[in-house]
Amino acid sequence: MTETYNFFAPTKVLFGPGKLAELGGQALPGKKALVVTTGGKSVKANGYLARVEEQLDRAGVGHVLFDRIEPNPLRDTVNAGGWMAREQGCDFVLALGGGSVMDGSKGICVVAANPGHDEAGNEVAGDIWDYVMGGTARGLPIPNDPLPLVCVTTTAGTGSEVDAGGVLSCKERDEKLRLGSPKLFPRLSVVDPELMLTVPARLTAFQGFDALFHNVECYIANNHTLMGDMICREGVRSAAASLAACVNDGANLEARTRLAFANTLGGYAMVCSGCCGCHGTEHGMSAHHHDLPHGAGLIMIARAYHQHMIDVHACDDRYVDMARLMGAPEVDIEARGASAFVDQLEGLMRACGMAELAMSEWGITRDELPAIAANALSTNDALFGHDPAPLSVDDVTAILEASWC
């Protein structure tokens, strides 16, 4: 553990039921917003978009809509959003949605304020692949400050409302890569669990396990810190205590609020340290299979990933601690040791109806697992670099094979 740390998380957060009603009274960072949503119907059908627009009108802020973000947001879509923000004269971006919308919006903020470059290095319209890291991306420093970002999150999954990173995909290159810079912290975020009451059970589970795993992975990461440990432990405890209740009774506002808290803690956890190879492996999966929800991929591989780390005794004390945080009885810990954590994980998955997810549901074949492992390691080396014990391509392939069905 690192006993010294730097902590910088400058986002103002309005947290709790009903907090969306306070948005219009805040000092917003501009006079014309590009409001970014998915291409789906939920934010419109549930009235969330109209409520946000009402708050912007109350604040005297103009707004235009970009409603094209897809799950695992794509390079071309992010570029189009950035160009639209520039053409429409928007001076900030408001993300209304879940992790894909917030991650995509961070990219839009960059593209709107920065040039791109063609293969010869000539300046052209902004291209986010100049600024993401890994794979075939350029990984250039972001020269100009991105447009300011405001987030109104409608899910409990990614923690992107309080961190400075995101994950974007290039379908043509089978790449899912990280965008990150201290310039990308949102200025203001609204975490209103009332907006999460309408999330279907299956999506609640996918997103909630992602929130849990952010806290879990940052706790076992080899660069974990004192501050991060405090955050992660409460994140694990809160997610484990609330996730099944949210899945089985979506109208349970108390449970939704606690899961939203665990999710936001997961964002702070990633500010303190970073996720590990479990996330990196899933990025390889959804880079090859773009329709695979990130949380579903994590659910399918998490048991094998963590059992591997337990088998090599990477950080047994931390797994025992997390088993206790998730409610494992002492008799189980005495009998199973660190593996009691995987037992608790299995039990939570069963309580949420997630224990039998199959890769084949998303078209993943056993034959392609070695290629997925190689892709994951070659494009997400920073995530694998946080692992408490190193993983080879054979190790990652074995984890995928143990998870495949």
Automatic annotation (TrEMBL):
PANTHER family: 3-DEOXY-ALPHA-D-MANNO-OCTULOSONATE 8-OXIDASE, ALCOHOL DEHYDROGENASE. It comes from Parolsenella catena. This is Alcohol dehydrogenase. It comes from the Bacteria. Keywords: Oxidoreductase. GO terms for molecular function: alcohol dehydrogenase (NAD+) activity; metal ion binding. CDD domains: Fe-ADH-like. The keyword Oxidoreductase applies. The keyword Thylakoid does not apply.
